[in-house]
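Researcher: Can you fold this with serine in place?
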Amino acid sequence: MERKILVTGAAGQIGSELVPALRKRYGKDAVVPMYHHSVPKNAEKPFEIADATEKETLAGIIREHGITEIYHLVGILSAKGEQDPALAYRVNMSSLMNVLDYAKEIEKKPKIFWPSSIAAFGPTTPRDSTPQHTVLEPSTMYGITKVAGELLANYYFKRYGIDIRSVRYPGIISWRTPPGGGTTDYAVEIFHEAIKHRKYTCFLQKGTYLPMMYMDDAVRGTIELMEAEPSKIKVRTSYNLTAVSFEPSELAEEIRKQIPGFTMDYKPDFRQQIADSWTRSMDDSAARKDWGWKHKFGLPEIAKEMLVNLQRELKSS
Ligand code: SER
């Protein structure tokens, strides 16, 4: 069967890097990015403009293109979700239910990727080396939609045989597209500010450890998960996935190695409470064992890649 991939949330932080990676791997016409209102200037056909919360529109697109795989990335992140919890619930849950319910109705069920997050964890979760199977009592609306989504993924797999796969992403660090409205965004903003102003005011407190990953690892890991033999996928809720764990001053120190004189102060805001409810580090040995997950970028490599690429980008813009 010809591979045809739909990527929803294609203009988002992950989507904007996953789409070119998928196109490089499977060919341009095999990938249909779906945008909501912000269509990138250089968007190449085929693409669609639609709202994933509208089931009939989404179903039409899946039918029309003969979609065989869906990377359903639409989602409102943690910090933005706390500003409008009802919107986060509506967008995150109804779009996922639309994808799952339509997949259930059709004969040739598409394979689905859906991202969960460290936000599925909460204050009662063990915070260090958080195990794969653990307490999930998040305190944000974003986290609630992630836990519900994980359980739905498992349910639709067991009950309807839909091959849906998922990872709990840590904070993702990238230079091409900024993240939008997350709690881990400081770890991207810091690079922009270090290059432009040699100083940064961090909205999380010193000592706030969070699991993190470089975008290239995240994209590669996601595609590897989707390409793995179905028999290797033992976890049908969502796999813990991580690369490194650090706190703001460690990141600042790493940046200082290349931008001497970079300074950082701290002004924690409401996002501190969110970060404090999450995990400090994750045990992702199930992903490593089941389908061979392996990260490539540690903290020094991430800092180097970010600074080199951003410096070049900012100079040419
Ligand atoms: N990076 C996301 C956030 O901070 C976590 O999934 O909301």
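Model: Folded with serine in place. The longest strand covers residues 31-35.
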